[in-house]
Amino acid sequence: MALVAAIWIKRFKLGPMDPVPRAVLVAGRGLAGNANQGGRRQVTLIEEERWAAACAELGVAVPPTARRANLLVRGISLAHSRQQILQIGAIRLRILGETRPCERMDQAQPGLRNALGTDWRGGVFAEVLDDGEIAVGDAIAWAPGVPQIPLPLHSPS
């Protein structure tokens, strides 16, 4: 089952990523209390599996908070999902694009930027379509009528 594995809120620009068990999403804005509000990057998401693959490639264990995304998801592929609708409970997120890793990733771990630069490992950004609350452990799925992209069994060489 695909689910929300973690939620983080960033209180201010460049601030720490605070783990929370639940969060309120505001349509057209993003996560309540998060520094980034409105615009195209209302919520950022990374896949636990792709994060683990990038860390394994580097031979290090880097906490996923280093990616500075809002949601860590497990069991669902976000790759090539632009314009698809992701459902978390009653909340819908429209995926707007791939989040490209920046130089901050190499500050967290040398080589991490390149390791995240392939196969959509850096995650995605989305706009919030509905108001409501989400929680760690909530089931996630592509909205009806959206083809599900299978997870790779291993990272491509």
Describe the structure in your own words.
The structure is a single chain. The protein is of the alpha+beta class and 157 residues long. It has one domain: M1 Pyruvate Kinase, Domain 3. 13% of the residues lie in helices and 33% in strands. The protein has three helices and eleven strands. The strands form two sheets. The chain has an eight-stranded mixed sheet. It starts with a strand and ends in a 15-residue tail after the last strand.
> What name does CATH use for the topology?
M1 Pyruvate Kinase, Domain 3
Instruction: Please provide the count of β strands.
Output: 11
Q: Radius of gyration from the CA trace?
A: 14 Å
Give the class-level CATH name.
Mainly Beta
The major pleated sheet works out as: 8 strands, mixed
Uncertain segments are: 149-157
For the largest beta sheet, what order do the strands appear in spatially?
Answer: 2-1-6-5-9-8-7-11
How much of the sequence is in beta strands?
A: 25-35%
How many helices does DSSP assign?
Answer: 3
CATH superfamily: PK beta-barrel domain-like
> Could you say which structural class the secondary elements and strand pairing correspond to?
alpha+beta
List keywords for this structure.
157 residues; alpha+beta; M1 Pyruvate Kinase, Domain 3; 8-stranded mixed sheet; 3 helices; disordered C terminus
